[in-house]
Structures are given as structure tokens and as C-alpha cells.
């Protein structure tokens, strides 16, 4: 909800005419598809397609790379075609409009985790960084694995429910590995752009030495916190 509220604040300040489906919105089905439930995925895609079809709009904006990937690359295979952008793409293209409205909340060292389905699957690397680098007071630093070489948070492909498998095969959770990399670059904030990541990284931070002060926060929240509403 925090990310959704932050997105709404940013869109409002940009003067965007937008709406949210609310209870009409179903799961995008991407996790179900990746877990082998193809039939369930198709049912959910069809349900969402019907919901989209009830309204007139120019494009869909989502904060979830899994939804973005499903609507962009998988739904068209079922004849469901709608233009879609990840929220970071939409905002980065309008960053010059936003810059005059940004205030400095103090210096903070920020690193960014590239989500698998935003980065490697769809090639969106620059947009999130464009936003972070525009926020006054942010010192942006890269972790040792970034962009196309980024690590998975461990939540994709059904991994949100398969931590036991990760322990059995790798003896470490990917989320903890990633948190260690954020600690290694002395980050104050680990910025994310996927809803799978905050719960995974916040939990992992409890297990990693030196990570107690690390804050996990969506890029939309970071940007919204710096926006002057009255300008």
C-alpha cells in the first residue's frame, strides 16, 4: 500500500489522469505460470483482459515487474494486447518535470537492486537509476552485481514459497547474499522496484551482520518523500 500511495502522489503531481482497478484486479498470473500452473495463468489473464476491456485508457502502469512482463510478453500470446510500462519507465521519461518539485531531505547513500523481470527479462536498467540520481541528497552506489549481472532476490519463479529449496541446494538464501552486497558498499538504503523484494530483503537483513541499519524502500516511496506537494 505504501508504494501504491507513493505512485498515486507522483502521478497526481504530474497531472496524470489515472484510475486504479481495485477489487476488479486479479493476480497477473505470472508466478502461477512460472510454477507450472499454465491453466490457472490463462484463466487469470483472461479475467484481467475482460477487466481492462471495460475501460478506455492509453496505457497500463504497474510497479510489479512480474505483472509488467506478463502483460507485455505473455498476455499477447493469448490475444490480450494492451500497452504497458513499468512505473520507473513512466516517471523517468518525465523526470525533468519532477526535478523542480524535489526537496533535499539530507544526504543518504543508496544502492539499487535490479529485479530479474525488469532488468534481464525486459532490459530496463537506466530508468530506475535516472530517478534515484535525480533525488537531491542521494549518493548512488552500485553493488558488485548490478544490471545484467544482478543477483535474483530469490522470490521469482515461485521462490517466494520455496526458501527450503534454496537452503537445501545452495546453503544460503539469495536475499541474504544480496543484503551482504548492500552492506559491503555501506548503503543506508537498498532501493527496489518490485513488490517481492521488501519482505524478502527485510527478513534477510535480520540475519546478516551489519545490516540492522539498512532500510529497504521502493523507488516510488523515495521519490514521493522528496516531492513538495504545494509547488
From TrEMBL:
Record-annotated membrane-spanning stretches: none
InterPro entries reported for this sequence: Cys_rich_dom, HdrC_iron-sulfur_subunit
Name of a matching Pfam family: CCG
Domain Cysteine-rich: 3-70, 110-195
Keywords, sorted A to Z: 4Fe-4S, Iron, Iron-sulfur, Metal-binding, Oxidoreductase
GO terms of molecular function: 4 iron, 4 sulfur cluster binding; metal ion binding; oxidoreductase activity
Cellular component, GO, one term: plasma membrane
Protein name (record): Cysteine-rich domain-containing protein
